[in-house]
Amino acid sequence: MSLKNKVVYITGGTKGIGLGMAKVLLDAGMRVAISGRNAETAQSAAQELGDTSKVLGLASDVSKLADEEAAVAKILETFGQLDVVLANAGVGHFAPIDQLTEEAWHQMIDTNLNGAFHTLKASVEALKVSGGYYITIASLAGTNFFASAAGYNASKFGVVGFTQAAMLDLRQYDIKVSTIMPGSVSSNFNNHVPSESDAWKIQPEDIGQIVLDLLKMNPRTLPSKIEVRPTRPDKK
Question: Residue span of the signal peptide, if any (predicted)?
């Protein structure tokens, strides 16, 4: 399958995993649209990626369906098609359940889970036209619960279930749907600043390579749920 000039939309694409995926897919010949909540940050990240004829930076808050509808409309206006959607935007707040605030709970559900729904809802008709691919970036926390992560676990368990059910609904339109569930990634997630000490972790471009492999998979075969973790965890 040739990816040259195919169009991918990546939410949460201004840094971390999203930006890493964008770089890999741009290098593979795709045209790339990235979004973040801040217009200036989105434009800056788009400029960092390089070729302005193949990169579009957009402001969109995935917790708002109208924002995602506007983003997809702009992509179609600019590139004329939409072939791949990567629902990557996510946030995490970690605290024991008796200390987790209502605000933190709603932000995770609204961004991680509702955001995945809004992104698909806004793009599904375009994906029907292209026979495209919708991929969520979930987490190993979507099947493995741990202390001080009730809200994050709830959102990511939801993303995994949502994606798997959407896969069953959309394959009749020749739309492929998968979820990627990374473990520890060297990224800016939860205000982390990547450093040399993160060398043992999954790197953002590694997730981009997984996406690339999925897109090149024979269309008769669908890896619908992919767990990925560091080969050798850091020794503590």
Answer: none
Mean pLDDT of all residues in 153-170: 98
- Which pLDDT belongs to residue 195? 82
Locate 86 and state its tokens. Answer: 């990567």
Residue 233 lies in a domain: no
Question: Would 235 be classed as within a structural domain?
Answer: no
Total number of domains in the chain: 1
Cα distance between residue 57 and residue 44, in whole Å: 8
b vs e for 136-159, b when ≥16 Cβ sit within 10 Å of the residue's Cβ? bbbbbbbeeeeeebbbbbbbbbbb
Of 126, 131, 42, 125, the C-alpha closest to 89 is 42
Task: Give residue 153's domain range.
Answer: 7-228
What is the pTM (predicted TM-score) of this model?
Answer: 0.96
Residues 6+ apart with CB under 8 A from 88: 10, 11, 12, 13, 17, 18, 21, 136, 137
Mind telling me the catalytic residues?
A: 152
CATH of the domain at 82: 3.40.50.720
Residue 2 lies in a domain: no
Q: Answer yes or no: are the C-beta atoms of 212 and 193 closer than 8 Å.
A: no
Pairwise CA distance, residues 123 & 120, whole Å:
5
Q: What is the pLDDT of residues 132-150, one digit of tens each?
A: 999 999 999 999 999 999 9
